[in-house]
């Protein structure tokens, strides 16, 4: 279902209306509405179904807030709302179900934002200001002119295989060698080394995003991310180890969405536990770099993760990268490793302890500190492969479109020929 909202600024319609189930939420909302210069009378009692009934006989406002708390089937009711909303309506849903799948499904249906009860004045103010900003933002709805974004996740099969080294080096190469505006997202919230590898302070950007996902927008991204060079910005954290990660994953969805708007490339340093807890992180990833090493445990976990990816991220292309490879050294040989995972290793990076030490001393990522090393040359080839794989994917999509179009044209031509033949036969038939 393609919801009609967010199609553009509407004409002579009310700027705002809300349909809220309970008095407590209304009491928080009305002062914020007054502060924004809108009529508090537009804050109506009643939830989403009341909104559907009212808007079926009246014009929808520019910004519409609906309460899902009394809805037994929110997604079905949202579809009903879409039928009565006019183009240009920005819809903010509120509810009491803290479920990241519901959040993602609501965003996919065209909802602008989803707020959890109990509501706060600050939360509402931020959400409504962001909704107003939609109308002044430049529109890029044309798929032919839309900027293509590439998203790459780097996952290590085991701790210490070099996934973070690959993530930071790839981010640097995309930004420096390929001049691509790049976002590096280090999701090891407590022990990440992304900022450390770049000789930067991690800041509080990522922890602030996790604590306040509703505040994530373009301005937040600009302020929270730390610049490593003109084209590379990193978002990371060094959270206290006595503070467990408390999130439903909605912040990560919002961050990835903002990265798609602001950058050409996203590189996600994705720990294995995050892969398990938040599988939706891979929903829009094009390429998954799976870092491994020549050990029995790493071979086992490569098999397991590849199997998981087939089920949960079949759209993404996995690339197997063996790191710290030493000729004649290792628990298992390359041939045995490839036989066990039933596929070839895509890239083998030689073990180079001296270059790794040099990068740490210089406070630079591995590929930047050691541009002429054999290991860096392989990582450069990997970066080019990632970009090439994404371009192939875009070509496949374009090919499918052309193929479908060609099929349509052929059928239309065939139908026209049949009609012309029938018309000629009718012309030749003797008059009765």
Automatic annotation (TrEMBL):
Record key words, sorted: ATP-binding, Nucleotide-binding
UniProt entry tagged with the keyword Ubl conjugation: no
GO molecular function annotations of the record: ATP binding; ATP hydrolysis activity
Regions annotated as coiled coil: none
GO process annotations (BP): negative regulation of cell division
InterPro entries noted in UniProt: CheY-like_superfamily, P-loop_NTPase, ParA/MinD_ATPase
GO CC, any one term: cytosol
Protein name (record): Pilus assembly protein CpaE
